[in-house]
Amino acid sequence: MAKLVKIKCEICNLTDKKILHYHHIIPQCDAMCHNGKNNISILCPNCHSSVHAGDIIIIGVYPSSDGRCLMWFKKGEEPPISKEFWLVKDNPLVLTIGGESDDLENMSDEKSDNKE
After folding, report:
1. Which of 43, 71, 74, 81 could form a disulfide with 48 if both were Cys (CB 3.0 to 4.6 A apart)?
2. Cβ density class 70-89: b for 16+ within 10 Å, e for less
3. Pairing state of beta strands 40-43 and 21-24?
4. Percent of the chain having pLDDT more than 90?
5. What is the DSSP string of the chain?
6. Cβ burial, residue 97 (10 Å; 0-12/13-18/19+)
7. For residue 55, how many C-alpha atoms fall within 13 Å in the half-sphere facing its CB?
8. What angle do CA 46, 53, 12 make, to 5 degrees?
9. What is the reported pTM?
10. What share of the chain has pLDDT > 70, as a percent?
């Protein structure tokens, strides 16, 4: 399988190839993680930080006329597709809305409650 080429950030379209990162959509700490093209996104440092902070939510890579389309949305916005079609929806490390998993803030609150 050919390696995914860093051309531009798949979120903001920044084209400075020297600073682009590969990001695992399903995190490496998850047993379901793999290095296939459909689990890798190409992000600039700013967007990469926003994903890890939970401000940008990636829901998967989908086929498109250009070959692939990274589906994502910003926290507080409506997702571009219905949750039933999300590729990454049951991973507790991926922010989900209105579904089985609570958001990251609630998960953080529960962890801090358990420490007391």
Report:
1. 43
2. bbbbeeeeebeeeeeebbbe
3. antiparallel
4. 40
5. -PPPP--S-TTT----GGG-EEEESS-TTSTT---SGGGEEEE-HHHHHHHHHTSEEEEEEE--TTS-EEEEEETTSPPSS-GGG-SS-S-TTS--SSSSSPPHHHHHHHHHHHH-
6. middle
7. 7
8. 30
9. 0.72
10. 73
Long-range (24+ apart) CB contacts under 8 A made by 93-99 are 93/26, 93/27, 93/29, 93/30, 94/25, 94/26, 94/57, 94/58, 94/59, 95/54, 95/57
Which amino acid is it at 24? H
Tokens encoding 54: 């939970």
Tokens of 90: 């049951």
> In which band, very low, low, confident or very high, does the pLDDT at 3 lie, cut at 50, 70 and 90?
confident
